[in-house]
């Protein structure tokens, strides 16, 4: 079973890393294109995706789980395809708690490692995110991505 490596190198920072058995171009597309995102993001639950993948463009994902909608949104700040992108991340019911996440993609021997570095505005926000169960949710989403990548492969 694959797992996410998670660390907290600074009081307002969270780093997660996971390797996928797929080439970087495919893993990049899975993270940046609506047609792919709706198959795995949000733990594989039904997902409504709106994404304008360009610097200054916005995104909004609405996951439906257990009869409840969970909406997330943000804006793209930097894009260097297919190596890295940075977006803001906000859970709509907790508006105003905006994190900045940078995703990096590296490939070695046909496997791609995705590393996300999240900067929070406070340690309380970072710790609240960790305590929300986000690691388990991210693990479920990435397991759904594993299964989706096999289908595409």
Automatic annotation (TrEMBL):
List, for all copies, the residue spans of the domain called Activator of Hsp90 ATPase homologue 1/2-like C-terminal: 21-149
Query: From which residue to which does any coiled coil extend?
Result: none
From what superkingdom does this record's organism come?
A: Bacteria
- Would you identify the family this protein belongs to, as annotated? Belongs to the AHA1 family.
- Protein's recorded name: Activator of HSP90 ATPase 1 family protein
């Amino acid at each position: 079973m694959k797992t996410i490596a998670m660390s907290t190198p600074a009081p307002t920072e969270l780093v997660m890393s996971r390797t996928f058995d797929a080439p970087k171009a495919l893993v990049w597309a899975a993270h940046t294109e609506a047609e792919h995102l709706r198959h795995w993001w949000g733990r594989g639950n039904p997902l409504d995706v709106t994404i304008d993948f360009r610097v200054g463009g916005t995104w909004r994902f609405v996951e439906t789980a257990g009869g409840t909608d969970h909406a997330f949104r943000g804006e793209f700040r930097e894009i260097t395809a297919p190596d890295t992108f940075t977006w803001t991340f906000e859970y709509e019911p907790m508006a105003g708690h905006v994190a900045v996440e940078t995703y990096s993609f590296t490939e070695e021997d046909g496997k791609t490692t995705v590393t996300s570095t999240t900067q929070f505005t406070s340690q309380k926000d970072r710790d609240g995110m960790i305590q929300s169960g986000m690691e388990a949710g991210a693990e479920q989403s990435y397991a759904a991505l594993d299964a989706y990548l096999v289908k595409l492969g």
